[in-house]
Amino acid sequence: MAPPEQEPDRAVRPIENSMVTDLSGTMSYGDYLDLDRLLAAQHPRSSPEHHDELLFIVQHQTSELWLKLMLHELRGARRSLGADGLAPALKCLARVKNIQRTLTEQWSVLATLTPREYAEFRGSLGSASGFQSAQYRAVEFILGNKDAAVLTMFEHECDAARVLGELLESPTLYDEFLRFLARRGLDVPAGVLERDVREPWTFQPALVPVFRQVYESTDTPWAIYEACESLVDLEDNFQLWRFRHLLTVRRTIGVKTGTGGSSGVGFLQRALGLTFFPELYAVRTEIGA
């Protein structure tokens, strides 16, 4: 007779003797991350508190943290380009692209919120709306979609107004990249290099031949080609994020007016027409023509 099967030993991972367990008077994980404040920063406004409002708050708070890191990396890339450091700039952009993918995937979590569930606490938002995100505006500013009128919306937020004012007055990531190309000997038009950086970027036809040379010449350093494609990746990712945002809003509230007074889906739809680096797309029509 075969012996009865024995139950496998339960997996145990004991704490190792070398691990710090006495956290008195030392830096702990919670201390380093300031978790007491971070985890206490979720304040549902519905009464009685609706179960799904925490999801809505956490979704948007984590998005703001990722936007903070994205802006940090975009500033780093801009700074490196200004110092002719293309390699560290590309490293920053690689991180930005992964942040963008994370932000886009996050919409799938919010999409689990049904229209009925959201309707039950939506009124608690008052006039709060995502288009009021100062960090989102800051990311758009550093990428070239500048609008001085936006600053009036943040007059009551001193830090946000200061950041946006600084970004309005300073070169964009694209400006610094074009200046870098000019220093590397490419024929970037003087009018582009001397433009008023406070203005939103508009399509510059004279730049298309410059990028055609980059893409068609076998003498182009690979890192410059890679930088161009990284900017295209960044814009593609931004458009995917916008589109997922639009789809999530449409499945949750249909075509209702946004809480902040926008047209909702219509407002988001128009954002899909915005572009940061139009010449990098236009050049594709010219290559091989």
Main attributes of the structure:
289 residues; mainly alpha; 13 helices; 56% helix
Q: What can you tell me about this protein's structure?
A:
- The protein is mainly alpha-helical.
- Helix content is 56%, strand content 0%.
- The protein has 13 helices and no strands.
- It has helices at residues 29-33, 35-38, 53-82, 86-110, 115-119, 134-143, 158-169, 173-183, 190-193, 208-216, 222-253, 265-271, 278-286.
- Helix 3 runs antiparallel to helix 4 (86-110), helix 3 packs parallel to helix 8 (173-183) and helix 4 runs parallel beside helix 11.
- The longest helix is centred in the C-terminal third of the chain and has 32 residues, at 222-253.
- The N and C termini lie far apart (81 Å).
Radius of gyration: 24 Å
How many β-strand stretches?
A: 0
Task: Find the structural class using helix and strand composition.
Answer: mainly alpha
- Terminal-residue CA separation: 81 Å
Q: Give the topology string: H per helix, E per strand.
A: HHHHHHHHHHHHH
The number of helices is 13
